[in-house]
Amino acid sequence: MDEFEQYLQAQKLSATTIAGHCNNVKLFTQWLAKESHLDAASISYNDLLSYIHYEKQKNVAPATINLRLASISHYYEY
Fold first, then answer.
1. What is the DSSP string of the chain?
2. pTM of the model
3. Can you give the pLDDT of all 78 residues of the chain as single tens digits?
């Protein structure tokens, strides 16, 4: 996660934004581990849909889900 954080710093993001992205990616990777998807590199579109469904089941606001997806996108760009 340290390398991802350095990547975000190189993008000139604020410390608060970086912390938010790191936290969102951490939540996602914890979900992956819980779902037995040990390799984040092998997830599919359907896995992302499952994650969205999981977040909705927890009553996470749509705006928050979109923010988490943006963080995941940054992670995969990295």
1. -HHHHHHHHHTT--HHHHHHHHHHHHHHHHHHHHTT---GGG--HHHHHHHHHHHHHTT--HHHHHHHHHHHHHHHH-
2. 0.85
3. 789 999 999 999 999 999 999 999 999 999 998 887 667 778 889 889 999 999 999 999 999 999 999 999 999 988
